[in-house]
Amino acid sequence: MSSFSVTEPSKRSKWFAGTLVILYALITMVPLAWIMLTGFKSPADAISYPPKVLFEPTLEGYVNLFTTRTRQTDEFLAANPPQTWYDRIVREYDMVIAGPSKFGERFLNSVIIGFGSTFLSIFLGTLAAYAFSRFKIPLADDLLFFILSTRMMPPIAVAIPIFLMYRQLGLSDTHLGMILLYTGVNISLAVWLLKGFIDEIPLEYEEAALIDGYTRFQAFYKVVLPQAATGIASTAIFCLIFAWNEYAFAVLLTSGTAQTAPPFIPTIIGVGGLDWPAVAAGATIFLLPVMIFTILLRKHLLRGITFGAVRK
Amino acid sequence: MAEVILKDLSKSFGNDVGIADLSMTIPDGAFVVLLGPTGAGKTTTLRLISGLEKADAGEVWIGGRNVGSETPAQRDVAMVFQQYSLYPHLSVRDNLAFPLKSPILNTPADEIERKVAEVASVLQISHKLDNKATALSGGEMQRVSIGRALVRDPSIYLMDEPLSSLDAKLRTDLRVELKRIQANLGATLLYVTHDQIEAMTMATHVGVLNEGRLVQYGTPREIYENPNSLYVASRLGLPRINIVPADVFGGMPSGVTQIGMRPEHIQQGEGQEAEVQRVEHLGDQARLHLMLKGHAITTIADPHTTYTPGAHIKIAPKNPLCFDAEGVRIS
User: Fold this and answer.
1) Which of A204, A223, A226 is nearest residue B83 as measured by Cβ atoms?
2) Which partner for A61 in A3, A116, A281, B12 could form a disulfide, CB atoms 3.0-4.6 Å apart?
3) A34-39: average pLDDT
4) Distance from C-alpha of B283 to C-alpha of B72, rounded to nearest angstrom
5) Angstrom distance (rounded) from CA B211 to CA B231
6) How far apart are CA B243 and CA A35, in angstroms?
7) Is A48 contained in some domain?
C-alpha cells in the first residue's frame, strides 16, 4: 500500500489509539462509577462480598445524607403513619426523621468558599499576571519566584501558625477566612499560569486598540481578556478543584458555620454506624459542581480561540 | 487631515539607535513613503508618531499641536500594522467597527453601520462581514486591517508595509485603490515599504532613512533620478543600480571614485567590451547579466534579443551618477 500520509494516521493506528483511550477512560471511571452506584445501594448491599454489580436501587443513602433520624417506640410509629416517600424509607428501620442534616449547609459553604476563592484568585491573578507580562517591574523575576515559593513547602508546615493567626484575627471558622486562605494558596498558581497565557497574546493587539481610541485598561478589558479566556477558564478549573477538595485546613480551621463538605462527609460514618451509601451519596453530590463547572468551560479548554489569527 | 511635523526626533533602544535627529514635514494631504533597509528606523518613526513609543528627544506636531504628552488615542492617528492585524475574538464587522465604537469617537450605531458597509465594499470584503476574523485568508485579513484604519477620519494614516503579505494581483489592485482613496479623501499618509513600485506610484514624497537618519527627502522622481548618495541610489531601482569604480570606463572628473549606472542608463554598441554571463527573458524586456573587468553589471535589452552566454558586447555609461570615496554624490 502506498497511501502513506503524514497527517492522516492509518486505520489500524486509529483503532489502536481509540482502544487505548477507551481503556484508560474505563479505568479512571471505575472508582467514580463505584461511588455513584454505592450511593443507590442499601447498606447491606454496599458491604456485601463479593460486591454486587446488580442490585435493587434505593434512595436510602440520599435520605440518610440529608436527614437526621431517631428510633421510636412501636406505639409512636403506629400512631403516626408515614407521610412522604422518604418517611416510608426510614420507617423500614423503625426510625422517624427528626430533621434535616447539616449536609445542605456544609455543601453551600463549599460552594461559597470554593467559588469565592476561585473568583478572587482569578481576579487578582489576572491583574498581577498582566502586570508581570506587560510592564517593566523591578525585580520581576525575583517577585515571581517569591510568589511561587509559597507553594514549595508542605501546606501542613504552616498549619499551626495559620491556626494561631486566624484565632487572633477572628477568622477561624468564617467564610472570609477560608476564602482568603484558599486564595492565598491558589494565587501563585493563578499568576504563573495566567502570565504564561497572557505572554502568548501579542502586544500588537493592545497597541492596535490604543491607536483605535481605547485606554490601556479598556484595551486590557476588550482585547486581552477575551483572548485570555482559554487560560482563565483552565486556571479557574484548577483553582476550583483545589479549593473544593481541600481537606486538611478545612478540618483544622472550621468546625461549624464555615465547615465545608470534605470534613463533613466523613463525620456521617460516626452518626448511624457505617453508613457507606450515605457517604457515597454525599461524595456523588459533592462531585457535581466541579463536574458541571468543567463541562461548562470545556469549550474554552479544548479550543484555542486565537488559533490561526496571527499572521507570521 | 493634518500636517505632521517631526522635529529633531531621537529614540534609541539600549545601545541600538532607532531614530537619530529626524526632522521632516509631512504636508497635509501628502502621501509620504519611507524607504530604507530593515533596522533603518522606519517602523520606529511610525510608532513615535502614533505614541506607541516615547521619544528620547525631539517633538512630534500633529495639526499644529505638540502631541508629546498625548496618548495614542488622543493623537487621532490610524495605523495599519504589518502583522497581528485583527482582533481574533471579533467578527470582521466588529473589527471594522472597533475604532468607531471607541470612547473617543463614540459613533452612533447607524453611522457605524454605514461606514463599515462602505469600507467593506471598497475593499471587497462585504460578503465576509459576519465571518470570524480568524476564518479569513491572509489577503482578506490584511484588507480588513486596512479597512479598520479607513473607517476613521484621522489626522494621519500610518501604514507599515500593509501590502507586503498579499499576492501580486491583490497587491496591484489594492495599491491602486489605496492611492485613489488617499487622493479622494485628501488624506495624509505615511507609508513604509520596501517595494519600489509602491513607492514610485503612490508617493508624493519619498524619505530615505539610513541608520535612523533621514538622508534624502523629495519627490519619487528626484530620489530616483537625482539621489544625493550612493546609499539613496541603491534604495530604488530594480534591477539595482550598477556600481563600478570610475576608472573602469575612465574620463570622469577628478574626485570621482565610483560611478552608478541604472540598468537603463547603459549604452550598448560602444565603449568597453563585456561578456554576457546570463540572459533573462522577462517578456516585456530582457535582462543581460554582464561581466566587465571582473565587475558584474546588469542592463536591459530588447525582449527579443539574440545574445547568448559567452557573447561579447560593448557598453558605455549614459549620464552616470558620480560618487566620491564616501559615496557622496558629485554633480
Assistant:
1) A204
2) A281
3) 92
4) 48
5) 11
6) 84
7) yes
Listed by number, the residues of chain A in 229-258 with a beta carbon closer than 8 Å to a beta carbon of chain B are 229
Higher per-residue pLDDT: B120 or A70: B120
Of A86, A101, A116, which one is at a domain's C-terminal end? A101
Mention every residue, 6+ apart, whose C-beta is less than 8 A from residue A273.
A43
Question: Which residue among A51, A82, A101 closes a domain?
Answer: A101
- Give yes or no for a contact between B207 and B214, defined as CB atoms under 8 angstroms apart: yes
Whether A280 and A183 map to the same domain: the answer is yes
> Is B88 in Cβ contact with A227 (below 8 Å)?
yes
Q: Which three cell numbers stand for residue A109?
A: 459553604
Number of residues that this document lists for chain B: 331
CB B289 within 8 A of CB B301: no
Q: Which residues of B touch A228 (CB under 8 A)?
A: none
Q: Other C-beta atoms within 10 Å of B11: how many?
A: 22
Q: Do B51 and A210 touch (CB under 8 A)?
A: yes
Shortest CA distance to A41 belongs to which of A27, A64, A61, A19?
Answer: A61
B139 in contact with chain A, both atoms CB, cutoff 8 A: no
Separation of alpha carbons B153 and B151, rounded Å: 7
Put simply, whether B92 touches A (Cβ < 8 Å) is no
Q: Give the residue on A whose Cα is nearest the Cα of B157.
A: A211
- Give the whole-number percent of chain A exceeding pLDDT 90: 49
The predicted-structure confidence for B44-94, as pLDDT tens digits, reads as follows: 999 999 999 999 999 999 999 999 899 999 999 999 988 767 898 899 999
Q: Does domain B242-330 have CATH number 3.10.180.10?
A: no
Instruction: Let me know if residue A34 belongs to a domain.
Output: no
Strands (E), chain B: 4-13, 16-26, 31-35, 57-62, 65-66, 77-80, 156-160, 189-192, 205-210, 213-218, 242-245, 258-261, 266-281, 286-292, 295-301, 312-317, 321-323, 329-330
- Find, in chain A, the residue whose alpha carbon is nearest to that of B91: A309
Does A209 contact B98 at a Cβ distance shorter than 8 Å? yes
Of A68-72, B60-64, B200-204, minimum mean pLDDT range: A68-72
**A132-147 pLDDT, tens per residue?**
999 999 999 999 999 9
- Residues A51 and A177 both lie in one domain: no
Under CATH, to which class is B4-228 assigned?
alpha beta
pTM (two decimals): 0.80
Cβ atoms < 10 Å from Cβ of B142? 28
Q: Does B51 touch chain A (CB under 8 A)?
A: yes
Give the ipTM.
0.83
Domain range for A92? 43-101
Q: Output the pLDDT for position A308.
A: 39
The reply to whether A253 and A198 lie within a common domain is yes
Check if the beta carbon of residue B290 is closer than 8 Å to that of residue B296.
Answer: yes
Dump pLDDT digits (tens) for A260-299. 999 998 888 765 567 889 999 999 999 999 889 888 888 7
Confidence of residue A306 (pLDDT cuts 50, 70, 90): very low
